[in-house]
Protein 1
Amino acid sequence: MAKFFNEMTADGLAHNASAEVREHYREFCGWLQRQSAETIERKRAEADLTFRRVGITFAVYGDDAGTERLIPFDTIPRIIPAAEWKQLQTGLVQRVKALNMFVHDIYHDQNIIKAGIIPAEQIYKNAQYRPEMQGINVASDIYAHIAGVDIVRAGQGEFYVLEDNLRVPSGVSYMLEDRKMMMRLFPELFARNKIAPVDHYPDMLLDNLRSVAPMGINDPTVVVMTPGMYNSAYFEHAFLAQQMGVELVEGKDLFVSDNTVFMRTTRGPKRVDVIYRRLDDDFLDPLAFRPDSSLGVPGLLSVYRAGRVTLANAIGTGVADDKSIYPYVPDMIKFYLSEEPVLNNVPTYQCRKKEDLAYTLANLAELVVKEVHGAGGYGMLVGPASTKAQIEDFRQRLLAKPDGYIAQPTLALSACPTYVESGIAPRHIDLRPFVLSGKTISMVPGGLTRVALQEGSLVVNSSQGGGTKDTWILER
């Protein structure tokens, strides 16, 4: 059995009562050993019942079992000591700062292309590149106001960035609800451990959105724009609007007049200054993008281009979170900030390159292959967990469209003890911290820990059967 870094114990194979417990887990582990199996099972059932009652679900498109599912919640937290979090936070701030500078650059002077660091075709042929944004100035030069950066741990415990999510990153509501649930179920743990709070995230988000309002607006009106109740993340849209105390709107609730965006209210039209939009570029404005979109606001792009409304995240930001751009992020950090990256990328083979494609084809059984535009754990091959037929199918896809894929080594992701049917067992995890960019770059300590509940699985996405854990950052 392959070894991996165990978050709780210095044992890379399984949860072992005799294994040495890592220092930052000792308090929790001592508490856990004093709990009866019946107590823990009762608490787990209470959590499931509460989550279902509150409506904390997500939709799975095309799922025959029903449109709504409960995301499994695990009561064993993922704990990170203060020193490790400080390193992570420094690296995340650095990375998101460089990514914002990159998006501004490609829509303005394009210095990174002129310097020969990124080939021009990687930008102009990118499905997320929006020529409509060329030369357009956005408030404070911020494009990715909310970034969800996926962090994994491998080897001897080194952190790596697996993915940058800069379009409409989701999951922060589960981070907040998981914490609320743990505090409800186990208040004694929070009395004993100095755990950094996360419940102020909605206030931070609102302050961040207000800080990037159009120039001259002193008391901006902020709204959350949702595609509607059938969207997989609708719970989160409604949750964040309610927590920030702002209106949740759909495209039909907004209209453009006099180069201004207005919201329909019972008291008449009200100007909207900042839109936290949770739908993709293509659907924002039927006059500019997809003419068949009934989700957007006709004329929105013209108001945006005139600088009279802020969209978070900005149109065209997706060019920076495409997997074909990911390999260049360390170079962006060096180019824009003149700094060495604090957080490393996972080594990546770009299949559009002849030599990288040849290596990938020769080693498919050992690699993870991903579509450059893929998301949610779909459109990927995990070589060691795939059949010969699946590998051969992917070989044909690669040969037909090599520039549509990247490949990476199969990392032995770190694991955290997790309650499963057989008891406590290690399951692989990742971490998605949420980074807010406005007048400053800020983040709450922690993020959403996702866990692959199937034994041996490396796919943590909720749409693929993954669950979540509370993430504790210790303050000492």
Note: Residues 347-410 form a domain with the Dna Ligase; domain 1 fold (CATH 3.30.1490.270).
Protein 2
Amino acid sequence: MNTAPLGQHRFTKAEVMALILDLFPWVRDFPTAPVRDYAATLFAASPGPACSARQHAKSLLVSWIASCASRRGYNQRQIERFQAEIIDNPVMQTGPHLHLLFEPDAFYTHLFSLMGLQARNSRSYISYACSTVKFVERGRKGPGWLTLDGQSINLFGLTRSRMIPYSVLAENGGYRFHLKNADRPEHAPASLTRLAQEMPAAEFSSAADAIQQANVSLWQRFLKPEVDLLQLDDRDVADMVVMHLADPQSWLSSALFADTELPLAILCAIDRLDSGPWRGWLRNATHFFWGCEEGRIFPLHLAGGFLCSDQKHAVRLPFAAPALSEALIGRSIVPSLLLVFIVIAILPGVRVLGGSRHAVYYPLMRYALCNALAKTGGDRALLGNLLRDERSGAWGHRVISAPFEPFSLLHNAGPSGLSSLITCFGSMTLEEACGGMASFTEDPLWAELARAFRSGDVTETGGPWAFS
């Protein structure tokens, strides 16, 4: 693949949009339509025919959602609404990482999701937020940071040494919201004072717990109290994998983890993708699980029926249900993103919405699984279901891109608050709402994909994309 620097050719928004329309022809109706119409389409999904493996996975998903909602304090009526939502309209927002609600990437994506839910008069919003990410993702961006009035706020008042190595799911000490102004420590802008008054005062065992709890109260206070938010993270998904492994009838127990033939076939399919025109989009950074030690995440690799780490961590775990369940319960391993999507979306038939890279790597995940099923002679009925899925995933994160700091924007919107923002942004065309599309135009993978598409190495109807 050509790896020429991006500077040799500026990848423009027009080129991005043209490539999106080529790869996803169904989007052609939306660039000049109100963004609320695009949101409504993404949040309208009908369950299709389901084989026994998919039906069983869906039943486990429904039970898991009930368990998670119960732990979050929702009553039986609310729990039943969450269950009905995922059964009747199987859609899940999976784009934002586990950020505070008013982090721009998270806020504007939730705003977009509310447009889709509003079109269906839904009162239940289910969102998965990746929590294996570190406090700092780039610069002063990430779950440990928030920008208010143009100033960088350190949410937990952590030092750099406490943020750089750890994931937000780490249960390695007490976490409180200190909201320290890193740019001007002596200055507390009015917005910071207002937000501090709304944050939980308790101490939490992990930053993930703290952010989850804060988001529940902020959602109720500032966003859409009549819509219940169920925000799930990787620890929740780990519990669902345990449910699968404890059930001998589940596909994970009876097929994926029954021996290593199918898992190795999936990994081989991913390696082949990473050696061709799809290089970089989907990689075997870890094999189905991450190792986790005191909040530090490290890769594991499948070899000889064992999950093994490098010598630094000295993990050697049997790749079998009992050992995996014990390690998941003990939080010494957590599911990889591939396994997350297998259990929350691919198996049960749930449409998942994500960001600019998700739009490509998720279809490739599905291709790797389909390819492995075909090569190993696996569950043909499941393979047939996967091949018949429509719009299994879509770009639904950072669709709205605005330069306005969300907490102040919402405060300045006045009594109508969120409703006026939904009306304002929802009335914009998709092309207007998505701004400059920097997550696409500044991404070398998208630039390379455009070149591969122009050269014919990638087409919208052949190879892996036929499984999208």
Note: The chain is about 45% helix and 10% strand.
